[in-house]
Amino acid sequence: MIDVKIPALGESISSGILSKWHVKDGDTVTRGQPIFELETDKITSEGQAESAGRISLKVAAGAEVTIGQLVATIDETAVASAAPAAPAAAAPAGAPAAAPETAKNETLSPATRRVATENKVDPSTVAGTGKGGRVTKGDLLTAPAISAPVPGAPSGGASPASAVVDPTPTRPAAVGERSTRSKMSPLRKRIAERLVAAQHNAAILTTFNEVDMGAVMDLRKKYQDDFVKRHSIKLGFMSFFVKAAVQALKSVPAVNAQIEGDELVQNHYYDIGVAVGTDRGLMVPVVRDCDQLSFAGVEKAIGELSKKARDGKIKIEDLQGGVFTISNGGIYGSMLSTPILNPPQSGILGLHNIQDRAVVKDGQIVIRPIMYLALSYDHRVVDGKEAVTFLVNLKQAIEDPARLLFAL
């Protein structure tokens, strides 16, 4: 019998929420198969089966668990002794056919299943409006009720270990109800605490500039095919801004400093955090030693870290140690914003959408692809002149990318 315990995730993490089981009580699992999802105040990670066998769940989904706690056992002997399942007996003539356990039902969240049960709605008959056609709670609330049991819904006799529990318990919503309540996830709660702390503990000021993206866009268009063939990854805008930020940090070292207690720490390395939006909240994985990476190296690192963050496989060490952060709200259509610092860093660069705007160039009004830039900084560490100089250096590097090659 193999014990399944909550693994250690870092010195500062002592507990979390077992938000989801990927298997059911009594299922046969294979070695390395993801079996549960653990959500902490810093990261969300998956637990994997250490051996093949029949799993017995000891903790319900949604329960708070501690590091090292037993949450399931795996019976290895069940694999060898398992016999082929007998064919199901044919249903008597005239008997109603059982509702199929469709893939749509299997992808329902615990909260959605509960709404389906309470409102007597069969999810397999509902057209989903969620991602990938997934049925949402809203879809079920507006669907007609049925008298038959909901396929895949937990029965009243389920044991506590196998019962499906919403990881963020929500008071059931009735048609026409104006609001519902749910507990904040550990990650969302931690994000909220850090954002408030940043505004309370730092003298945050934001300065703005605009940048003509034409030169970078032309370069990408000219070399994109060759870049993809050689590196198997697309050349994006972010690698230009990461390299330009490194150059600006070298020119204005104050932005690469931070306060620790009563000491001012000057950093001499360039680990840049890149904000990534996920279903669980905003995460900022860190790309290490960006000054030593090529454009392809930066793009690959960002791609790998972003995928890990969105898949819930990011590690605590992937989020620590950054000296500066870049957040791209432009991918969501943001025109302008004032980003909040990521403590203990002293600077964060906000990127925004690219819009064709009328500007004056060489005495003529022309249409150019313009992006607004926002640099938020800790005024205790960075003076206004240094902040403006940082943005001007970054603007020059983006508008004339050859500067990135010659460190001008």
How does this structure look, described?
- This protein has helices at residues 77-81, 103-106, 110-119, 137-141, 186-201, 214-231, 237-251, 295-310, 384-399, 402-406, and strands at 2-5, 15-21, 28-29, 34-39, 44-48, 53-57, 64-66, 70-75, 204-212, 257-260, 263-266, 272-274, 276-278, 281-283, 286-287, 324-328, 347-351, 354-361, 364-378.
- It is of the alpha+beta class and 408 residues long.
- The strands form five sheets. Strands 9, 12, 15, 16, 17, 18 and 19 form a seven-stranded mixed sheet that branches. It has a four-stranded antiparallel sheet with strand order 1-8-6-3.
- It is globular and about 75 Å long.
- The N and C termini lie far apart (64 Å).
- 32% of the residues are buried.
How are the SSEs placed, and which strands pair?
Layout: E1 2-5, E2 15-21, E3 28-29, E4 34-39, E5 44-48, E6 53-57, E7 64-66, E8 70-75, H1 77-81, H2 103-106, H3 110-119, H4 137-141, H5 186-201, E9 204-212, H6 214-231, H7 237-251, E10 257-260, E11 263-266, E12 272-274, E13 276-278, E14 281-283, E15 286-287, H8 295-310, E16 324-328, E17 347-351, E18 354-361, E19 364-378, H9 384-399, H10 402-406
Parallel strand pairs: 12-16, 16-17
Antiparallel strand pairs: 1-8, 2-4, 2-7, 3-6, 4-5, 6-8, 9-19, 10-11, 12-15, 13-14, 17-19, 18-19
